[in-house]
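Quick one:
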Amino acid sequence: MITLVNISSPEFMFAPPLGILYVGSALKRAGYDVEVLHIAPGEISEYATVIADKDPLFVGISAFTCNQTNFSAQLSREIKKLSDIPIVWGGVHASMVPEQTLSEEYVDAIVIGEGEETAVEFADAIENGKDLENVRSIGFKRDGELIFTERRPLIENLDDFKLDWDLVDVSRYLVPMWGRKKVLNYITSRGCPHRCGFCYSLEFSGGRWRAHSKEFVISEIQKLKDRYGIDGIRFYDDNFFANKKRAIEILEAVNLPWEGQLRIGYITDELARKLRDTQCQGICFGLESGNDRILKLMQKDQTVDDIIKGITILAKYPEVRVSNCVILGNPTETKQEIRNTINLCLELWKIHPRMSFSLGTYMPYPGVPLYDMVVEAGFVPPKRTEDWETLNRMNKEMEVSWLPWVTANETKKFVRAGGYASILPLGNLKIPILNRIPHWRLAHYNFTFPIELGPLNWVHLKFADRTSRVSDVMRKILPYLRNRGTTLNH
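Output:
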C-alpha cells in the first residue's frame, strides 16, 4: 500500500485534494494499492498512528508554502517516532525549496514538480530495490548526502491522467451553493501563460499553460453529473480562460452554474455576456494593486485603467458576482500607494454593487521572481520548513521587513483593512450606520479601536457558510434588507 496525505485547515476541507488525487490515480492505474487521506490539523496524531500501523511502502505528503508546511512537518515527525516508513514530500513547497525540505530529518525524499509519472517510477524503485538515481525529478538522501536527479519535462498530454474519484469520499466535497446542493471543485488545466512576479506558477509550470482537451473535460464532468448528481462546479484552474474559446465551449456543453478565475484584461462586452449566459455565479480577479508602478513591478501586464474598464463592463451584468484579490505591502510600496489601492477598491465597489474584495499582505513565496528583491530588502527566510507557516496573508504578526516604514502596528492595519474590505458588501443593506462603517473605515484608513469588526465579520462568515442555520435565516430576510442592488451614496 501507498499512503498519500493532504492536511487542510478546517475552512478548506470542502475542497478535494486534487493534486494527490491525480498522483493517487496514476499509482492505482500502475497497479498499486493506494490510500488518499485528506485530514484536518486536529487529526494529525490519530492518523500518524493509523499510518504507522498500516506500514505502507511510503507516505507521500503534499504541501503548499503556508500553514500546510507546519501541519505536514508535524505529521512527518509523528510518523517518524513510530516507524521508519519512507516519507516523501511533494507539491509546491518541496519544489520551490528543495534543499531545505530534503534537509529536514523527517523527510526521506522529495518529488520536484508534477508527481504522476515520478511517483510511479519512485514506487517501482522502492519496491524492487532499484537505484533512486534513475528516478527523474526527485531528491533523496544517501549517507547523509542530498542527491537531486535530472528534472523530467512537463506532462504534454494531460488527458493521459484521469482522476479516480473512488479514492476519496466524494460526498464530503459536494457543498450547497447558489441554491444548488452538490457543487464540486474541479480542475481542467495547469499553469498560466502570464508572468506575475509573486506567483508560484511561473517557476512550477515554466510559464506555460497546458490543458485537458475540451472533449476530455466535457466527458469527465458528465460522468460526475451522472454518478454523483453534481449540480454546480467551481473551476480551480490557475487560468481557466487562457483559451477563451475552449472555456466557453466547455461551459456551454456542461450546462452547470459555475465559478472560476479570470484576468480582468480579458473582459470584453462579448465575454461578459457569455459569463452571464453560461450561468456564471461568480468570477475572481487578481487586481493586485491600484498603482500602475506596482503593477509594472510585479509584471502583471495590466493597468489601473484596464481594471476600471473591465469592472465597468461587468457592472452591466449584475447577475455575475465579482470577487477580487488585492495585495498590500508589495516590495518598494509606499503608504500613499497602499491608500491608492484601497481607494481604487472603493471606487470599483461603487461601479459594481456585487463586488467583494480579499485584501492581504504580500507574501514572499520562495522561487518567484520578486523573491530575491524581497530578500535583498531585508526579508530573512525561515530556517526551518515548519516556520514557513508564517506566510499567511492574514497574519497579524507578519513582519513586513522588506518595507522599512512598515511597523508592527502598520501590519495590523493591513489585516484590519482586509477585514473591513471583506464586509464592504454590508454597504448594500438598508441598515443605518451599520452599512456605512466599512466604507468609512477604509476611506479614512482609520482602524483605531475596531470593536465592530469582530461581530460584523462573524455575521459575514456565517452568511457565507451555506450549511449554517444563521445563513439560511439571513438569506430569507435579505430581499427586505437590500437596497435594490444599488450602492449607497457615500
